[in-house]
Amino acid sequence: MARADRRKTPMTDFLLDRKGSKVNVVIGAELSTTVTRDLQGLLCAAQEDGVTELVLDFSQTKSVDAAGIRLLLATQNSFSGGGKSLTLVHVPATIISLFEALRLNRRLNAHAG
To answer: Least C-beta-crowded within 10 Å: which of 33, 55, 66, 89?
Structure first.
Protein backbone atom coordinates (compact mmCIF):
# COMPACT_ATOMS: atom_id res chain seq x y z
CA MET A 1 0.00 0.00 0.00
CA ALA A 2 1.37 3.43 -0.93
CA ARG A 3 1.39 6.27 1.57
CA ALA A 4 2.24 9.91 1.04
CA ASP A 5 3.19 12.25 3.86
CA ARG A 6 3.75 15.97 3.29
CA ARG A 7 5.47 17.90 6.06
CA LYS A 8 5.74 21.67 6.01
CA THR A 9 8.29 23.76 7.85
CA PRO A 10 8.60 27.55 7.89
CA MET A 11 11.04 27.66 4.94
CA THR A 12 10.47 24.50 2.97
CA ASP A 13 8.77 21.12 2.84
CA PHE A 14 9.25 17.56 1.70
CA LEU A 15 7.04 14.83 0.33
CA LEU A 16 7.52 11.24 1.44
CA ASP A 17 5.95 8.45 -0.61
CA ARG A 18 6.23 4.81 0.41
CA LYS A 19 5.55 1.81 -1.78
CA GLY A 20 6.36 -1.44 -0.04
CA SER A 21 10.00 -1.45 1.02
CA LYS A 22 10.85 1.60 -1.11
CA VAL A 23 10.57 5.21 0.04
CA ASN A 24 10.87 8.24 -2.24
CA VAL A 25 11.42 11.63 -0.61
CA VAL A 26 11.16 14.84 -2.63
CA ILE A 27 13.08 17.47 -0.69
CA GLY A 28 11.93 21.08 -0.92
CA ALA A 29 14.02 24.19 -1.55
CA GLU A 30 16.58 23.49 1.17
CA LEU A 31 17.90 20.61 3.22
CA SER A 32 18.61 22.53 6.39
CA THR A 33 18.38 22.31 10.18
CA THR A 34 14.66 23.02 10.14
CA VAL A 35 13.92 20.21 7.69
CA THR A 36 16.37 17.63 9.02
CA ARG A 37 14.71 17.50 12.45
CA ASP A 38 11.44 16.23 10.97
CA LEU A 39 12.98 14.23 8.15
CA GLN A 40 15.45 12.33 10.31
CA GLY A 41 12.69 10.97 12.52
CA LEU A 42 10.67 9.81 9.53
CA LEU A 43 13.68 8.16 7.88
CA CYS A 44 14.60 6.31 11.08
CA ALA A 45 11.01 5.13 11.50
CA ALA A 46 10.88 4.00 7.87
CA GLN A 47 14.08 2.00 8.25
CA GLU A 48 12.80 0.34 11.42
CA ASP A 49 9.60 -0.46 9.52
CA GLY A 50 11.48 -2.48 6.88
CA VAL A 51 12.40 0.06 4.21
CA THR A 52 15.36 -1.20 2.21
CA GLU A 53 15.45 1.30 -0.67
CA LEU A 54 15.53 5.05 -0.07
CA VAL A 55 15.53 7.58 -2.91
CA LEU A 56 16.06 11.27 -2.12
CA ASP A 57 14.91 13.54 -4.95
CA PHE A 58 16.74 16.89 -5.05
CA SER A 59 14.90 18.28 -8.10
CA GLN A 60 13.48 21.18 -6.05
CA THR A 61 16.47 21.67 -3.76
CA LYS A 62 18.60 24.80 -4.01
CA SER A 63 20.82 24.47 -0.92
CA VAL A 64 22.15 22.05 1.68
CA ASP A 65 23.62 23.19 5.01
CA ALA A 66 25.83 21.36 7.54
CA ALA A 67 22.80 19.74 9.19
CA GLY A 68 21.69 18.44 5.81
CA ILE A 69 25.16 16.99 5.16
CA ARG A 70 25.10 15.29 8.57
CA LEU A 71 21.67 13.80 7.80
CA LEU A 72 22.88 12.49 4.43
CA LEU A 73 25.96 10.87 5.97
CA ALA A 74 24.00 9.35 8.86
CA THR A 75 21.40 8.02 6.44
CA GLN A 76 24.11 6.63 4.16
CA ASN A 77 25.67 4.84 7.13
CA SER A 78 22.29 3.39 8.10
CA PHE A 79 21.52 2.23 4.57
CA SER A 80 24.91 0.79 3.67
CA GLY A 81 25.07 -2.96 3.42
CA GLY A 82 22.51 -5.54 4.37
CA GLY A 83 20.64 -5.23 1.08
CA LYS A 84 19.75 -1.57 1.72
CA SER A 85 20.41 1.34 -0.62
CA LEU A 86 20.34 5.13 -0.62
CA THR A 87 20.23 7.01 -3.92
CA LEU A 88 20.19 10.77 -4.46
CA VAL A 89 18.57 11.75 -7.77
CA HIS A 90 18.08 14.97 -9.74
CA VAL A 91 20.85 16.65 -7.75
CA PRO A 92 21.59 20.18 -9.05
CA ALA A 93 25.11 20.88 -10.33
CA THR A 94 25.79 23.32 -7.48
CA ILE A 95 25.07 20.63 -4.89
CA ILE A 96 27.07 18.02 -6.83
CA SER A 97 29.98 20.53 -6.74
CA LEU A 98 29.56 20.84 -2.96
CA PHE A 99 29.65 17.06 -2.58
CA GLU A 100 32.80 16.91 -4.72
CA ALA A 101 34.51 19.70 -2.73
CA LEU A 102 33.77 17.81 0.49
CA ARG A 103 34.69 14.49 -1.17
CA LEU A 104 31.22 13.18 -0.40
CA ASN A 105 30.84 12.03 -3.99
CA ARG A 106 32.90 9.01 -2.92
CA ARG A 107 30.37 8.07 -0.23
CA LEU A 108 27.04 9.22 -1.64
CA ASN A 109 25.34 7.65 -4.65
CA ALA A 110 24.35 11.01 -6.19
CA HIS A 111 23.09 11.51 -9.73
CA ALA A 112 22.87 14.90 -11.44
CA GLY A 113 19.53 16.00 -12.70
So the answer is: 66
